[in-house]
Amino acid sequence: MPPIKDIENRLDVKILVIQFYEKIRSDKLLGPIFNATIKNWPEHLKHLTDFWETQLFFVAKFKGNPLKKHVEVDNQTNHTIRANNFGKCLNYWFETIDFLFEGGRVQEAKNRARKMGSHLYLKLFEARPKS
Predict the structure, then answer these.
(1) To which H or E segment does residue 122 belong?
(2) Which of 62, 93, 103, 126 would bridge with 51, disulfide CB 3.0–4.6 Å?
């Protein structure tokens, strides 16, 4: 078991992101979506490390539009992404964090993920074509 400490730097964020996505990639529900969508995993992991480093340490490294990307993926999957997809992601995020870390940034990382997941899903649903 790894030593338990707070999320303190980019290396900690990178370890968190890598271990989180290992779970996502092997999940029966989430893996097919992510593995079909992401063509360059090393680049994606670096990009998401930048994202979470920006979120947790307020450094201006991340450049991108998460909502736009999630809407694109939802379109590519014929609007099959559901709330349970986001719920599973959150569960894996919390599980990975709790295995690796404890401290104030742990709660911040959980809170931000929870808020982002809710926001992204609501906006994704709003972006779907009206029937």
Answers:
(1) helix 104-127
(2) 62
